[in-house]
């Protein structure tokens, strides 16, 4: 059955935790290649920023957000950075 969702990939955004390496990085690359805006969330800033650079090289909109999901405050900060964008009130945080 065809999707009735009117959103295009260019309008979709995703936050990926653990995105500075391994499976998280591969997921970020996959979503970026398909036109998604990506929030790279991780505790390793240098590696996360490197992934953001890779995503931008692909033409994707992306930003790094420090996030240790074991820390409630970090997770809330990640949500705050992404939620306004998801609601269409502004572009991705960090841009």
UniProtKB/TrEMBL annotation:
Pfam family membership, one: adh_short
Parts of the chain that traverse the membrane: none
Gene3D superfamilies: NAD(P)-binding Rossmann-like Domain
InterPro entries noted in UniProt: NAD(P)-bd_dom_sf (IPR036291), SDR_fam (IPR002347)
Protein's recorded name: SDR family NAD(P)-dependent oxidoreductase
Annotated source species: Microbulbifer salipaludis
Lineage: Bacteria, Pseudomonadati, Pseudomonadota, Gammaproteobacteria, Cellvibrionales
């Amino acid at each position: 059955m065809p999707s009735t969702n009117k959103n295009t990939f260019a309008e979709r955004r995703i936050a990926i935790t653990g995105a500075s390496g391994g499976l998280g990085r591969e997921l970020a690359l996959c979503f970026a290649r398909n036109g998604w805006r990506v929030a790279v969330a991780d505790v390793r800033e240098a590696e996360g920023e490197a992934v953001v650079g890779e995503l931008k090289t692909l033409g994707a909109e992306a930003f790094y957000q420090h996030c240790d999901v074991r820390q409630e405050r970090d997770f809330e900060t990640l949500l705050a950075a992404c939620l306004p964008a998801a609601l269409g009130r502004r572009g991705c945080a960090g841009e």
